[in-house]
Specification:
This protein is mainly α and 148 residues long. The protein is 65% helix and 0% strand. It has five helices and no strands. The relative contact order is 0.08.
């Protein structure tokens, strides 16, 4: 091969790095989570906006009824986890593509990761510890439901 010849595409230039390929797994995650998110989000929208009385049914009692069943708790938590990780991975990709300074890139990727982890933790706690009777007083319209 002479110096004026271009190597064939995919010609190995160096020994392949050992270990897992995080970029490949991130790419696969984006595709798989995207498909699952479409199903979860359209199911969420159908139940909340189309079934029953439509958007008029959404009030505090609707949320209380939904979060009284583990099925809807897990539905919403899985949707939350997938969406936040999907979004954080997308932001990581954008940061890696456009931020050229290595230290800035590292700080931004860590900030996105920490923000996503915090929101996942907070959202999961809210869904699984939701208590409609917390802070209800005798003056509240929920008192009759919560006093027993």
């Amino acid at each position: 091969m002479t110096s004026d010849t271009i190597a064939a595409p995919r010609t190995p230039t160096a020994a392949r790095r050992r270990g897992s390929n995080l970029e490949k797994w991130g790419w696969i995650y984006m595709r798989a989570s995207g498909v699952l998110l479409v199903v979860l989000i359209f199911g969420h929208l159908f139940i909340n906006l189309v079934a029953g009385d439509g958007v008029r049914q959404i009030d505090f009692a609707f949320v209380v009824g939904k979060y009284a069943t583990p099925f809807w708790q897990w539905w919403d938590v899985i949707m939350l986890w997938l969406a936040l990780i999907h979004g954080a991975n997308g932001m990581r990709t954008i940061i890696n593509d456009y931020v050229t300074h290595a230290r800035t890139r590292t700080v931004l990727v860590w900030a996105v990761g920490l923000a996503a982890a915090f929101l996942i933790l907070l959202g999961t706690l809210v869904v699984f510890t939701f208590d409609p009777c917390l802070g209800v007083t005798q003056d509240s319209s929920l008192w009759s439901m919560c006093k027993g």
